[in-house]
Amino acid sequence: MSDSKDSALRDASQRIQRALDAFGVGLSVREFPSSTRTAAEAADTIGCTVGQIAKSLIFRGKASGQSVLVIASGANRVDEKKVKGALGEAIGKADADFVRQKTGFSIGGVPPVGHAAEPTVLIDRDLMQHGEIWAAAGTPFAVFRLEPETLVRITGGKVADLRKD
Asked: Taking the complete model, does pTM exceed 0.90, yes or no?
């Protein structure tokens, strides 16, 4: 496990650490030797529940073509109809090229901050029940710990019921 100030952090993780530092919230990127690519892998690696994983999902606004970042609890599937209701626009799936172009990151390491193009952000209400959550930090081996309220503050995200029932 690496400390956030460790020079061994990968470039993408360093970019996220700089973005977090700019918010002045005292958050630190941690890299692990085991994958944190999926919510289940991240929970196993970190030693937390799957529900504490803040997974970043990128969608494309169907009318606007804008990137939409849905930050969901790792335990939940996202209801696209609820996203449409909260967003006011239908969404479509985003392919790997769109994700990389809009975020600057590959699927499996997309963080909630530091994107190439600022997305519209929606946050799964279920994340708010946890004292601490973990989010991706730019690679499939890096994460950072934060409180749900801090996630809302640094992303400017709107909290909504997004869970598929």
From this structure: yes
